[in-house]
């Protein structure tokens, strides 16, 4: 790693009044005495290590990267750091820094990160990575790189279709940003040839490491159910909601309340998986406040960082929308009912959400819920989970090996001798109401 000559600690009122890309930053910029910068060789445990910077603009990207980072574990030739970049408007996403610190990561200030050169930059979003110096490995942060939406909701119906493989995303001032572009599916490679042929030489179909970890977790379903407090014979109904107004809870804010009241407590438990953007935009207090009655009644609310995959594995039925979480649930074989979907003129044909809209049963809120859930469970063999899995990944079970090989190629190092694997996800922990969780009678 290198450090530009003449750069050092800046603490004056005029130091860095503007950040990279014109984003405003704090007028007083302080530098971290980490393994980068002037005299770093006198601070580090060992010299000559390859440097890896992990870019976490928001929690969703961070969770995907935490699936990849274990592939670098136990390698004393590598040193890993983190940074949180600003959004295009200069704002910071709430929860991103807390996410890094909760994992014990060394957090470099953004203004310091853009002044250093790294051997590898790991990113699961294109947010601000064009301003960093190093070989960029750019992953998707959801199920695949082809968004379910044809266009941004704020752009309006006349906007041109966009996705994460178009030239505007992958190129910056005529320069290709990623040095490696892992794709989840062969179909994405065909799209890339049309949308940004300059990126084809750096593309590699790697599969989906998140899906691979979920599949590795399926044999431990009973352990996840036990961690969630489920008793023998109880069914777990999991509600998933992405973060737009068209989402499950955006359209049906009373859905969880209805489930808690209509489902008999001796036969059912209810869990909720809310997109991390809901937590980031509104804050944990607001989320808990909105769901306070449900939490007191025994709702299992999964935290945004982890636990959602274990809950899906433990589930008997999922009620969801067009978000990636719903598709992952269907792909591992859980019966799915759709409570919300995108308008037809906004949905991308051939996308996961379009496939879900064709295959999944629809939840009717004008009818009793319990009978519909029983119907969904009994119709499990008709959910087409194999077909959904084939849409998510073209390299099932191989993502860890392909991704590790790609990272070490960029680092210029031989791979470790041990096999690369995608381990099962950890046991889940639900969020309790701050006043204490009053379980329903019979739970």
Question: Secondary structure elements and their pairing?
Answer:
Elements: E1 50-55, H1 59-68, E2 78-83, H2 96-102, E3 107-108, H3 110-113, E4 120-123, E5 136-138, H4 167-170, E6 171-172, E7 175-176, E8 178-183, H5 186-195, E9 203-205, H6 209-217, H7 221-227, E10 235-241, H8 248-251, H9 255-262, E11 268-274, H10 276-282, H11 284-290, H12 292-296, E12 300-301, H13 308-314, E13 317-320, H14 324-331, E14 336-338, H15 352-359, E15 361-362, H16 369-378, H17 385-392, H18 399-411
Parallel strand pairs: 1-2, 1-4, 2-3, 4-5, 5-8, 8-9, 10-11, 10-13, 11-12, 13-14, 14-15
Antiparallel strand pairs: 6-7
Helix pairs in contact: 7-13, 10-11, 14-17
Describe this protein's structure:
The protein has 18 helices and 15 strands. The chain is α/β, with parallel strands linked by helices and 443 residues long. The chain has a seven-stranded parallel beta sheet. It is globular and about 65 Å long. Mean pLDDT is 86; it is low at 1-27 and 437-443.
Query: Largest sheet, order of strands side by side?
Result: 3-2-1-4-5-8-9
Count of helical regions: 18
Rg over C-alpha atoms, rounded to the nearest angstrom: 22 Å
Derived structural class: alpha/beta
Q: Determine the N-to-C terminus distance.
A: 55 Å
Percent of residues in helices: 25-40%
What does the average pLDDT come to?
A: 86
**Residue share in β-strands:** 5-15%
Shape: globular
């Amino acid at each position: 790693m290198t450090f530009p000559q003449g750069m050092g600690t800046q603490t004056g009122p005029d130091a860095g009044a503007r950040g990279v890309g014109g984003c405003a930053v704090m007028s007083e910029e302080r530098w971290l005495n980490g393994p980068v910068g002037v005299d770093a060789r006198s601070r580090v445990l060992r010299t000559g290590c390859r440097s890896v910077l992990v870019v976490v603009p928001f929690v969703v990207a961070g969770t995907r990267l935490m699936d990849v980072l274990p592939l670098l574990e136990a390698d004393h030739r590598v040193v890993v750091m983190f940074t949180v970049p600003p959004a295009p408007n200069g704002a910071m996403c709430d929860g991103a820094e807390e996410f890094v610190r909760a994992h014990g990561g060394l957090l470099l200030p953004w203004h310091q990160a853009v002044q250093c050169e790294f051997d590898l930059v790991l990113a699961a979003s294109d947010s601000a990575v064009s301003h960093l110096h190093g070989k960029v490995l750019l992953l998707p942060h959801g199920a695949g790189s082809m968004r379910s939406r044809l266009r941004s909701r704020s752009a309006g119906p006349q906007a041109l279709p966009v996705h994460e493989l178009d030239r505007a995303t992958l190129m910056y001032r005529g320069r290709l940003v990623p040095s490696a572009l892992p794709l989840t599916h062969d179909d994405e490679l065909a799209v890339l040839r049309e949308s940004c042929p300059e990126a084809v030489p750096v593309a590699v179909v790697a599969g989906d490491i998140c899906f691979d970890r979920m599949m590795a977790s399926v044999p431990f379903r009973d352990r996840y159910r036990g961690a969630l407090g489920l008793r023998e014979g109880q069914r777990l109904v999991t509600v998933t909601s992405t973060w737009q107004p068209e989402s499950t809870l955006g359209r049906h804010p009373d859905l969880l309340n209805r489930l808690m009241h209509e489902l008999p407590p001796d036969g059912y438990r209810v869990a909720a998986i809310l997109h991390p953007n809901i937590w980031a935009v509104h804050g944990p207090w607001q989320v808990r406040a909105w769901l306070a009655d449900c939490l007191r009644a025994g709702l299992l609310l999964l935290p945004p960082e982890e636990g959602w995959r274990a809950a899906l594995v433990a589930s008997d039925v999922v009620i969801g929308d067009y978000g990636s979480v719903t598709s992952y649930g269907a792909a591992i074989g859980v019966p799915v009912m759709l409570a919300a979907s995108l308008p037809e003129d906004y949905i991308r044909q051939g996308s996961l959400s379009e496939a879900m809209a064709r295959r999944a049963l629809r939840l009717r809120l004008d009818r009793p819920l319990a009978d519909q859930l029983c119907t969904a469970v009994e119709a499990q063999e008709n959910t087409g989970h194999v077909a959904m899995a084939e849409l998510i990944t073209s390299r099932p079970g191989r993502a860890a090996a392909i991704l590790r090989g790609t990272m070490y190629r960029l680092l210029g190092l031989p791979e470790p001798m041990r096999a690369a694997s995608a381990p099962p996800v950890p046991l889940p922990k639900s969020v309790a109401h701050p006043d204490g969780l009053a379980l329903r009678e019979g739970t």
